[in-house]
Amino acid sequence: MKHSAQKIGLFAGVLFMFFAANAFAAETQSWRPTYDFVMRWVNFAIMAFLFFKFAWGPLTRWLRGQGDEVAAQIKDMEEKKQAILEKMAETKEQIQKRSQYLEELMARTTENAKMEKEQIVEQAKAEGAQMIQDAKQRADYQIAAARKQFRSELIDEAVELASQKLPGIISSDDESKIQTDYLEKALQ
């Protein structure tokens, strides 16, 4: 409050000094222009003295205060800027670490998928080989069964055919000789 009053007084004094002198100089005498000139300088000297005596200290303190305040604000801004830069660097580092982690995870996942694929292919090959082997065994069994059935049918047909044709061809002597050979072989 005190500083504001001093500032207003100083400003009013300077205005008075320059504008009031012309208003009082309406009389024209030979000594008056010199007096006015001298009084302007005396008033200026008084105003300068008052300014330096009463206003200079508060004005300089106010200017220093303003400068200190601006310097504090600049320092605060610099600290905030540094904090933000550090946070940005930290964030960039975290992003880089996460990117590396994702790349490693993707590489591991790809490797695991390849290994799983190879296992599935190997398992499919083994199952395919087992299926082929089972199919061969079934085919061999069916072929063997078909051969056995064919032999059995062939033998039945041969026996039937022989039964039809042999009674007229084989004599009773041939029949007793066959029986004797069969018994000899069976007893041995």
UniProtKB/TrEMBL annotation:
Membrane topology is: Single-pass membrane protein
| Sections of the chain in a coiled coil | 74-127
Keyword hit for Coiled coil? yes
Q: Name one GO molecular function term.
A: proton-transporting ATP synthase activity, rotational mechanism
Q: Which GO terms describe its cellular component?
A: endomembrane system; plasma membrane; proton-transporting ATP synthase complex
Q: Where are the transmembrane segments?
A: 41-59
Places the protein is found? Cell inner membrane; Endomembrane system
Q: Which residues form the signal peptide?
A: 1-25
Question: What family is it from?
Answer: Belongs to the ATPase B chain family.
Q: What name goes with this protein?
A: ATP synthase subunit b
Per the UniProt record, the source organism is Desulfatibacillum aliphaticivorans
Gene expressing this chain? atpF
